[in-house]
Amino acid sequence: MANSSLTSIKRRISSVKSTLKITSAMKVVSTAKLKTYKDKLGQGDLYLSSLNSTLAKIIANLDCSDDDNINSYAQGDKKLIILVTSSLGLCGAYNSNIFKKFASIYKNGDEIIAIGTKSASYLSYRNIEYTKDYVHLFHAFDYSVSRKLGNYIIKRFKTREFGEVVIIGTKFINSLNFKVESKTILPVTNDKEEITNIVIEPDAKTVYNKILPQYINSNLYNILLNSVVCEYASRRNAMDSATNNGEDIIEELTLNYNKARQAAITQEITEVVAGAKGK
Fold first, then answer.
1. φ and ψ at residue 79, rounded to 5 degrees
2. Spatial separation of the C-alpha atoms in residues 247 and 226, rounded to whole Å
3. How far apart are the first and last CA of the chain?
4. Which of 16, 61, 117, 127 is most open to solvent, judged by the fewest CB atoms within 10 Å of its CB?
5. What global pTM score does this model have?
6. R_g of the chain, CA atoms, integer Å
7. Is the pLDDT of residue 105 over 70?
8. Is 131 helix (H, G, I), strand (E, B) or coil?
9. What ranges make up the beta strands (E) of the chain?
10. pLDDT band at 237 (very low <50, low <70, confident <90, very high)
11. pLDDT of 168-177, one tens digit each?
12. Does 213 sit behind a cis peptide bond, omega within 30 degrees of 0 on the bond before it?
């Protein structure tokens, strides 16, 4: 009976050690990728804030009914939602928090662009139709991918089917903290009151046509990059916790093994002594 108990504990220790090898390896990989993408993140928020403010000022100087004004294409309450998730699991509550945000925004009839296989699985399970062209976008992610997605969004928005284009992703705060957020890409909005009587050279239309694609692409790239950084940070934290928990389990199992082994030895000695007395 004692030998059976010892064998069972040894198997559990061996199983946990095998799991620890996986979690430790994934932690190392996630840490390396986190550093790579975090270095690319830089100080993009300040640049985007300035770009948004500049574009809003230019739009304020365009004719509201002008077809060159992207805001003039906003029609109705239907939204084009870009849902950004990971393609891999083992990253804690990263994806579930994104899905909660999506559920609070989505309405029947909204069009969805899925990025990440987890978003595709989530939408398929709920029988929600989505655009599949960008599901594997993160497999070769760089600014050119954001440019391709940006051109598609502008093209779709100009069909006058949507009142708003929203992207749902995560914003990196630090290695332990990040938050899910939704950001309106189109129409271009700004909370601050903009000056309409400003001099724009050579003219508002020309500058606007140059800046708009850059605004869309830069915002998409920044949000997608934030999401990638948050994903790897979340996975690293999850693997770190799993590794620590595994080490605690091994320590406890080792202690139980030693207790069981000592009890088995004591029982054997007692049986030998009892046998000797019987003779």
1. -115, 150
2. 31
3. 26
4. 127
5. 0.80
6. 28
7. yes
8. strand
9. 79-84, 111-115, 164-172, 178-186
10. confident
11. 999 888 877 8
12. no
